[in-house]
Amino acid sequence: MNQLVINADLGHRTISRHIYGHFAEHLGRCIYDGIWVGEESPIPNTRGIRNDVVQALRAINIPNLRWPGGCYADAYHWRDGIGPKAQRPRTINFHWGNVVEDNSFGTHEFMDLCDQLGCEPYICGNVGSGSPREMAEWVEYLTFDGDSTLANLRRANGRAEPWKIRFWGIGNENWGCGGCMKPEHYADLYRQFQVYVRNYGGNKIMKIASGMGGPYIYGTEVLMRDVFKVLGPRAIDALCLHYYVFMRDTDFSATEFGEEQWFIVLQKALAIEDSLKEHIAIMDYYDPGQHVGLIVDEWGTWYSPEPGTNPAFLYQQNTLRDALVAGLTLHIFHRYCDRVRMANLAQTVNVLQAPILTQGEKIVLTPTYHVFEMFKGHQDATLLPLELKAADYTFNGQTIPAVSASASRNAAGDILLTLCNLNPTAAQTITCELRGVQAASVSGRILTAPTMTAHNTFEQPDAVRPAPFHGAQIVDGRLAIDLPARSVVALTIR
Ligand code: AHR
Questions:
Q1: Verdict on whether the full-model pTM lies above 0.85
Q2: Which residue lies with its CA nearest to atom 6 of ligand 1?
Q3: Residue 91 and residue 472: Cα distance in Å, rounded?
Q4: Phi and psi at residue 68, in whole multiples of 5°?
Q5: Among positive and negative, which fits the CA dihedral 73, 76, 77, 80?
Q6: Residue 347 C-alpha to ligand 1 middle, in angstroms?
Q7: Whole-angstrom Cα distance, residue 174 to residue 204?
Q8: Taken in order 371, 376, 380, 386, is the CA torsion positive or negative?
């Protein structure tokens, strides 16, 4: 038995819609094939960008998109991706399989993509192999409205008005693929680079420092101590954390697994909360006023690549297990929404925990996609505090909570309660007390399937998709919920 109390009258924190952000890198078939097919392609497109992918991402209210990497960001030189396509240089994408990059998708194409998606761009600039001048000039090219040579070059390349850009990353994983730097060295470089990231006209940039991976907290300590404490809030608005459920070294398959691998993946996904707590504790020490945000701008599952595919392309399938990972991770982000103001699932199409897979003109929406769709009502809603006493889910002597839950109230007053049952074999009954609200109706949808490994393929694209849910009733002002095994449920309470 699980017991839940929702304090519907106590919420005061907003779940930023930017927690529901995405990430598209020049990696494998994410940009090329997945997003960009070119104007001449028989695949329906608008100025070279796939219509089906845009439509799918608009349907989940994509709030922001991070680009061009990842590791690729610190190898990317923005001038390679502007001007007539035939004259753009051919470069080597050495991080991701040494494929030749023709730079046909560059700054203008990315900004057009964001316009078509109706989302905010999040650009990650190059620290590892770039210079402060290169970064300063990219910002000027994009956002300056006056009569400078670079603003005029932008106009000559077809864009008269400056773009608005809020989110600007200063390097990526500079402890690793972004330059193998010691935290102190990166902090010094960050201090230098951020000076040259300027605001022009009405544009106001949020400066985002590249942070640490998973449990490594020392980089956060150094950034808070040597940047925020010394230079103050004008120098840094956020720092990043990357958290993967990284199973590649252990040769975990995305689709062939039993309960042991199901359990381990969910257990590792839940452990993101420990990482958040550790990084936030350091941030709270230096910044009790919460100026600096924590941005989890890469997260998701990382399995062995799909057999028969290029291992450097990180293509993997996506099952009901990934839906559970997505659901419980988003719930955790909600809980820390004071600090966690943005997050980006890795990656948007055809790479890692992708919400969308493509094959030629075909498209598949994965179980992860459906979670983002079912949860979209949480975007910019008020987080409702809840208390959950969850039953145990024990496997091989290890225990995790069987149920994960989160609730929010939107501007119209409706409550969205989302629930995950992590137990793959046992249904959960939940009694839910609703404090501060008189519930008149409840309706919902469920994402589940007959097996843990269920997934959508190009032949069977709807094997896992949301269906109406009838397992929740209001009884004497309380909610009684029967949550089927291995499921994600979204309830609207009015
Ligand atoms: O998302 C794939 C890679 O993972 C990114 O390029 C890098 O930042 C991280 O290590």
A1: yes
A2: 70
A3: 56
A4: -95, -5
A5: negative
A6: 9
A7: 24
A8: negative
Closest residue by CA, ligand 1 atom 8? 70
Q: Which two tokens stand for residue 378?
A: 């949480």
DSSP labels, 30-79: TTBTTTB--TT-SS-EETTEEHHHHHHHHHTT--EEEES-SGGGGG--GG
- Measured by CA distance, the residue closest to atom 4 of ligand 1 is 70
pLDDT digits (tens, 9 = 90+) for 38-89: 999 999 999 999 999 999 999 999 999 999 999 999 999 999 999 999 999 9
Amino acid at 96: W
Whether the predicted pLDDT of 214 surpasses 80? no
For the CA of 69, the closest atom of ligand 1 is 6
Contact 92, 23 (CB under 8 A): no
CA–centroid distance, 352 to ligand 1, in Å, is 10
pLDDT at residue 414 tops 80: yes
Active site (annotated) includes residue 40: no
In angstroms, what is the span from residue 64 Cα to ligand 1's centroid? Answer: 18
**184 annotated active-site:** no
Q: Which of 25, 140, 173, 373 is catalytic?
A: 173
Could you say which of 3.20.20.80, 3.20.20.150, 3.40.50.1860, 3.40.50.300 is the CATH number of the domain covering 17-379? 3.20.20.80
Rg (CA), the chain: 22
CATH code assigned to 386-493: 2.60.40.1180
Which residue in this structure is represented by tokens 């046992």?
Answer: 426
Domain ranges of the chain: 17-379, 386-493
The minimum-distance atom of ligand 1 relative to the CA of 23 is 1
3-state secondary structure of 238: strand
How do residues 165-180 score in pLDDT, each as one tens digit? Answer: 999 999 999 999 999 9
20 in helix, strand or coil?
helix
Tokens of 202: 């009405």
Ligand 1 pocket list (CB less than 6 A): 25, 69-71, 172-173, 298, 346-347, 352
Pocket test for ligand 1, best of 67, 94, 298 (most atoms within 8 A of CB): 298
Which ligand 1 atom is the nearest neighbour of the CA of 173?
8
Using the mean position of ligand 1's atoms as its centre, give its distance from the Cα of residue 304 in Å: 15
Average pLDDT, the chain: 97
CA distance 316 to 354: 8
CA pair distance 228, 226, nearest whole angstrom: 6
213 pLDDT above the threshold of 80: no
Q: Which amino acid is at 407?
A: A
